[in-house]
Design a protein that fits this description.
The protein is an alpha/beta fold. The protein has one domain: 3-Layer(aba) Sandwich (Alkaline Phosphatase, subunit A). Helices cover 26% and strands 19% of the residues. The chain has twelve helices and 20 strands. It has helices spanning 5-17, 29-33, 62-69, 85-94, 98-101, 123-128, 185-201, 270-300, 332-335, 359-368, 454-467, 473-476, and strands at residues 44-51, 73-75, 78-79, 133-138, 157-163, 171-174, 179-181, 207-216, 219-221, 224-226, 307-313, 318-319, 325-326, 339-342, 350-352, 356-357, 395-399, 412-416, 420-425, 428-436. It has a ten-stranded mixed sheet. A four-stranded antiparallel sheet has the order 17-18-19-20, covered by helices on one side. Strands 3-16 form a two-stranded parallel ribbon. Helix 3 crosses helix 8 and helix 4 packs parallel to helix 10. Belongs to the sulfatase family. InterPro entries: Alkaline_phosphatase_core_sf (IPR017850), Sulfatase_CS (IPR024607), Sulfatase_N (IPR000917). Residues 43-370 form the Sulfatase N-terminal domain. Residues 1-26 form the signal peptide.
Length: 487
């Protein structure tokens, strides 16, 4: 198959500028036919991803508030439907749930980069085939260590870390062989990103840039996990900050005996949780600075007006709620993520409360690019269609993170609606959680075995079974109708 002239022209220009182009032979031919007639008129897309950031931590980032929240639209009910690193990133890259793209966990037989079905068939490849310049910066999928090849199909600039992803100010190794010692990682990723943005701006055609920042994920030093490390100027920031749910009944929950046994944990030292909340906030300040400088670079290049800037996280994080620390847990604090978008036609200062997910972002990127056709069936919807053309009322959520989970790779699977959060253990459907947000907004009473919720539970289980095997937009985005009222 011949390459589109837009791609060949872009390739020649990039070779002259010192950027290597790797054509993607697997990119769908149908995408080319759907490309707008004038490539230069199509918008740029910059996706900025944090790692393990809670939705309520957005308030700790003054630059993001000023440049994105006030200048764009916030989605207040955005979730990561599989709230852990690799599955979430795979959802962003493919627009599919884990049962369809292959990535169900971070590791084990169903997890990591090796589990991704058709790794060359991604959003980047579909956009590249229509003339987009594409760049990836920072962490990719867990387990990616292709040291011998500095390229990945679909990406014009493959600027991915293959070592030291969580070292913060220690060693960092990139796929092109560049090494850093002692540089703070948010600054490294920002410098490398802005350098490529400058080069792309000089080329013909739009660009898609995927930026992965490590904060506020924990640090890895000397063979052990520690709190995230702050840049020197922020080492004493937020001295009085408390965990976000400190005054809520979910924090250090008194009684967790109504939860499944694998979710019952002893109380955590409150001072440990306070230190964690402050360390995370301090690390996020450096990402906040990086975002500001990336926006500044886009403005200086004359690209900002024609660029969609998306700021979000791969998953949320528990900081003491329900006696839990971490992610990949069937609680709202794990699922809830920040999502803010600034760009052409996006209203400033608006807040949208319709539930959306990371799976929707792939369809949204293609929609922004002029209706580019995907190379695989999409499970998500373009954001502008949600709540209008597609009044879905139930979203799939799922958990799974190790080889020791159920034989099919899952641990918990369920659904979320505006009122309920429901999930059952993959190896035993008689174990699970059911929280009624209307009556119990802090999720301190598990209604899973309550007789009054029996009909609700049966209907949510039915929806779970249907969505757990869904594929494509029609199956994965359904309007099931009203749920029965609890007795």
């Amino acid at each position: 198959m011949g390459w589109p002239l837009a791609v060949l022209g872009t390739a020649m220009a990039l070779v002259l500028s010192g950027i290597t182009v790797v054509p993607d032979a697997a990119a769908p031919a149908t995408a080319v036919a759907n490309a707008p007639a004038t490539a230069a008129a199509r918008p740029n897309i910059v996706l900025i991803l944090t790692d393990d950031m809670r939705a309520d931590e957005l308030r700790l980032m003054p630059n993001v508030q000023r440049l994105l929240v006030r200048k764009g639209t916030s989605y207040t009910n955005a979730i990561s439907p599989h709230p852990v690193c690799c599955p979430a990133r795979a959802e962003l890259l493919t627009g599919q749930f884990g049962q369809n793209n292959g990535v169900q966990n971070n590791k084990g037989p169903w997890g990591g980069y090796k589990a991704l079905d058709q790794p060359d068939n991604t959003v980047a490849a579909w956009l590249q085939a229509t003339g987009y310049l594409t760049a990836h910066h920072g962490k990719y999928l867990n387990g990616y260590r292709r040291v011998s090849s500095p390229h990945e199909p679909g990406w014009t600039r493959w600027d991915t870390q293959i070592g030291g992803e969580y070292s913060y100010d220690g060693r960092a190794l990139f796929a092109d062989g560049d090494r850093y010692e002692g540089d703070y990682i948010a600054d490294v990723v920002r410098r490398r990103t802005n350098r490529v943005l400058t080069k792309f701006s000089r080329m013909a055609g739009p660009f898609f840039t995927f930026i992965n920042h490590v904060a506020p994920h924990g640090a890895y030093h000397g063979g052990r996990w520690t709190l995230p490390r702050a840049e020197r100027q922020y080492s004493d920031a937020y001295p009085d900050l408390l965990p976000p749910s400190y005054d809520d009944p979910a924090f250090q929950e008194r009684n967790v005996r109504d939860l499944p046994s694998d979710l019952q944990q002893p109380p955590i030292l409150t001072r440990t949780l306070i230190r964690m909340a402050r360390a995370r906030a301090r690390a996020l300040r450096s990402v906040d600075d990086a975002v500001a400088r990336t926006i500044r670079r886009l403005r200086a290049l004359g690209e900002l007006r024609n660029t969609y800037v998306v700021f979000t996280s791969d998953n949320g994080f528990q900081i003491g709620e329900h006696r839990q620390v971490g992610k990949n847990l069937p609680f709202d604090e794990s699922f809830d993520i920040p999502l803010v978008i600034r760009g052409p036609g996006i209203p400033a200062g608006e807040r949208i409360h319709e539930p959306v997910t990371l799976v929707d972002m792939g369809a949204t990127f293609l929609d922004w690019a002029g209706g580019v056709a995907p190379g695989r069936p999409l499970d998500g919807l373009p954001l502008r269609h949600i709540g209008r053309k597609h009044p879905r009322d139930t979203l799939l959520v799922q958990i799974g993170d190790s080889a020791s989970d159920a034989s099919d790779g899952w641990k918990y699977r369920g659904v979320t609606t505006r009122r309920y959060l429901f999930a059952t253990h993959a190896s035993n459907p008689n174990r699970g959680i059911l929280f009624d947000r209307r009556r119990d907004p802090h999720a301190t009473v598990n209604q899973f075995h309550r007789r009054a919720y029996a009909q609700v539970r049966r209907e949510l289980m039915r929806r779970t079974r249907l969505l757990a095997v869904c594929s494509g937009q029609a199956e994965c985005n359904q309007a099931f109708g009203a749920l029965p009222e609890p007795g």
